Amino acid sequence: MPREFRAESWSSNETLCRLSQVISNAADVAAPLISQHHIRLTVEHPIGDPYVDCDPVRFAQMVDNLLHNACKFTPSGG
What we know:
It is a single chain. The protein is mainly alpha-helical. It has one domain. It has 2 helices and 2 strands; from the N terminus they run βαβα. The protein has a two-stranded antiparallel ribbon with strand order 1-2. InterPro entries: HATPase_C_sf (IPR036890).
């Protein structure tokens, strides 16, 4: 049975975040794992460097999860 989402167990500290900075930081943290899997990652920043209203910790976790999944499912050399 799937775990239910409970609003009281979820905290959010939303603030205005620079999108490129959050993504670059996550890429820097994941760099050793990416290198270990012999994968190439290119980060291209959008024109205008937009800001997003988000919880920076949760957003960084989301990007980190995407990068880890990319490492897990991308063939070596990809």
